User: Fold Cystatin like 1 from Rhinopithecus bieti.
Amino acid sequence: MGIRCWRNPLLLLIALVLSAKLGHFQRWEGFQEQPMSKKNMNSTLNFFIQSYNNASNDTYLYRVQKLIRSQMQLTTGVEYIVTVKIGRTKCKRNDTSNSSCPLQSKKLRKSLICESLIYTVPWINYFQLWNNSCLEA
Assistant:
């Protein structure tokens, strides 16, 4: 009777070990480093800077100066953690021609380093800013 009690849990343990050895379980990888190509993340960075400018109380718009670091994780979509340097431009919030705004110079110059968590489902062009934190550069 003592041996019968251990038979089922032992069989379950053997099945789990064999399944793991044979690769039936996928390991959760988490966030992975991505190349620093701004081109590959252009739509995500455009979404980020639009969200930042919409939430900002600054008179002037900001633009991405440099992609410092990017990490991604596949979930039901794609989650990005991006670290970017952004700078204050000479374009005001109500300007309509803000596609190529030059950066501020001298006393109005301001740069920030921002780390953001962005969720996207790229195949349906869906973006959501889940978290953002910026500090002066």
Notes: The helical segments are 2-21, 42-55. Residues 32 and 71 are 5 Å apart (CA to CA). Strands lie at 32-33, 60-74, 78-92, 111-121, 126-136. The longest helix spans residues 2-21.
